[in-house]
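Components:
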Amino acid sequence: METLQYWIQGFSVATLPINLLFALIGCVLGTLIGVLPGLGPAAGTAILIPITFSLEPISAIIMLAAIYYGAMYGGTITSVLVNVPGEAASVITCFDGYQMAKQGRGGPALGIAAIGSFVGGTFATFALMVVSLPLASFALRFGPPEVFALLVVGLSLVTGLAGRSLLAALVMTFFGLLLAMIGMDPVRGAPRFTFGIQDLYDGVGFIPVVMGLFGVGEILLSMEQPVLEIIKTKLTDLWPSRKEWGVSAGAIGRGTIIGFFLGLIPGIGAIIPTFMAYVVEKKVSKHPEKFGTGVIEGVASPETANNSYANAAMVPLLTLGIPGSPTLAVLMGAFIIHGLTPGPFLFKERPDVVWGLIASLYMGNVILLILNLPLVGFWAKLLEIRYQYLYPGILLFCILGAYSLNQSVFDVLLMVLFGVLGYVFRKVDWPLAPTILALILGPMMERSLRTSLEMSGGDLWILFQRPISAVLLVIGAIILLTSAIRLMPMWARKESKD
Amino acid sequence: MKRPWQIASIIFVLVSIFVLIHSFSYPYKDRLGPGPGFFPFWMSIITGLLSLGLFLQTTFAESESGEKKTFFPKRDGAIRIAAVLVSLTFVMVFMNSLGFRLSLLIFLFFLPLLLGVRNWIVISILAIAGSFGVFHVFYFWLKLPLPIGIFGI
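Structure:
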């Protein structure tokens, strides 16, 4: 009964005209970010945070969340039409989506992706509504040792699943933790590693870091590449044929389930669910050999899993305060900027925000469907903008976004420095996501570890004496161990190829 | 990519040593428990060991001859990257003194030029819209404080 009341409250907030308007704006901007090369969802969401400064917190969060899942769909368009994934989760869509576009079937590919995204996103939102309250109540029992152990699991997953070398991913994670130590000590409040620079007293702002690593870094890398060739495909017929519907229905169902359950695991990222959905689809298919040649199930399943994951990944963010990807870390930063702390307490303190946001996900899924089916031709047109015009424009918004956080050029400097670092790390193929997550989770991790040690009088054994934290730490160790085993031969093989 | 990996690993080893040395200036322990120096001490040690491990792994990994990836971009690419970085540096240096509008007007005018665009009309329209137009939207409509320079622009 209590849950039902919250649902009603959420829908009453989400259906306010002003919030619907911001969900619409967010979906448009998100799709735009997903479509435009050189701007991934993490950097795109970060750049647009300043727009929300003058908004009510709930409207701001609704808009930024819409940007997040809008970008997830926008990335599909570039995958299908130019064989370039707008964001990492759309890599798999290139395999069959691009082949379909080459055969003149780009329309149905984009159509089924939009419908699958709608189904997956809507199901995941419903499940999010059902599981979030019990999970948040359970999370309230967590003390500092459990929080620390949970953060270890989250970072282990991001680290273990990132890149081709576990050691490189670990170094990048610890690099993020080192950066997180700059600024005020999270327990005693004493300044550390500030070197007398006043701008560092609040720490290294992760928003300029995200803009730098994912925005400026990507643009610098793109400057090396030749200009993309765009396939002119007829997009008049978006509706899949009856036969295509038949094979896609099951794929959408399977993609929904896979995306949702993997989205519940903090730190797993969007690539794994889409990849797994594709693999499962290939396994159950009567014609697995046709995958990669332009089969519609190869688009339907991963695209559904992608949006199902995107909505389900809100569960760990909202109930535990743990973001599972760089984009969700940016969203978490937006919560904090607006005076809200994601986690179990938010359900008690600001149910209007939590339930309003969850209900808005339904609205957003409907908006995306309406927006994308008729407007797909328009989005495709945007791909024809020349990069010489596009990148200065993106950089303009990066500068604006970084400056307006604290009205300081120092943040612009940070963004540019991390842009150069992002370019270098991309060149050497070291993963960036662990650094971002470690940077945002670092203070929380340090606080929970030190408070745990204060509780036990300095005895580290406290982490293993409490059942939940002990189990979580063992899970974290298993994740890293299996990653190490998985990557060992691969590392040697890949390195030798270079 | 063996050499860049080695160099990057060594840089991280040096960063860890720097953090470790600096961590000694904060108390490791106080009367309540671990002090501000506790976390930096352990994090720098772990980062240093991991970086050293990565260096050794990279150095002693088997390397077969095959397709070589180069770290440095080709000349054209390098020029474009330099153009972006110089333009961004210009904005950082002059944004406070020249103001948002003027510095971004120059940025948006010259960066496309440096990237090879020669359509003066389009460049001019985009530069004015991106500087004065964006300023108007964010400063007056969204109430976002943006720098106004010495010329009052």
